[in-house]
Amino acid sequence: MSWTTWSAPVRRDISPSIVADCARKGVAAVSLFTSGFAETEQEEGVRLQRELGELARENGLLLIGPNCMGIYNPRLGLRQSPEQPAGEAGNVGFISRVAPTASTSASWATSTASAAARR
Questions:
Q1: What CA–CA distances, in Å, run from 40 to 37, 92, 100?
Q2: Quick one: three-class SS letters along the chain?
Q3: Residue 7 to residue 104: CA distance in whole angstroms
Q4: Which CATH code for domain 3-64?
Q5: CATH 3.40.50.720 boundaries in the chain
Q6: Over the stretch 40-90, which tens digit does the pLDDT of each residue have?
Q7: For residue 91, what are the contacts with CB-CB under 8 A and spacing of at least 6?
Q8: Distance in angstroms (rounded) separating the CA atoms of residues 24 and 28
Q9: Which of 54, 88, 66, 61 is nearest to 9 (CA)?
Q10: What are 88's strand-pairing partners?
């Protein structure tokens, strides 16, 4: 398996064990669509995020997140939900820190024939 997406809005505390399990299984990349880490500025969240980074570095694992929707590339069919368009992609790419902004922008671009290349 080359890519795993983990979505756990309530259980941030088990994210390090999920990443460790993925590393043991040889997964190349993990996307953590999970919140409650360093962005909270709480000691536990900061510690868990640091632990995730260390696990990823020690195991050569690509880590997207935490607190991230992940990567959207319609040309490759890489998306977070079946509602997101897949197939043709345009020549517009963008990065957003705010998930609803990214999703809304990609949907708008598709509906106006200005398809998003990736986000």
A1: 6, 32, 19
A2: CCEEEECCCCCHHHHHHHHHHHHHCCCCEEEECCCCCHHHCCHHHHHHHHHHHHHHHHHCCEEECCCCCCCCECCCCECCCCCCCCCCCCCEECCCCCHHHHHHHHHHHHHCCCCEEEC
A3: 20
A4: 3.40.50.720
A5: 3-64
A6: 999 999 999 999 999 999 999 999 888 777 788 888 888 777 877 788 777
A7: 117
A8: 10
A9: 66
A10: none
Both tokens of residue 56? 């990823």
**C-alpha span between 69 and 9 (Å, rounded):** 12
Pairwise CA distance, residues 110 & 87, whole Å: 11
Q: pLDDT tens-digit profile of 2-24?
A: 777 766 665 788 899 999 999 99
Q: The tokens 């598709």 sit on which residue?
A: 110
How many residues belong to the chain? Answer: 119
- Provide the token pair at 25: 């299984």
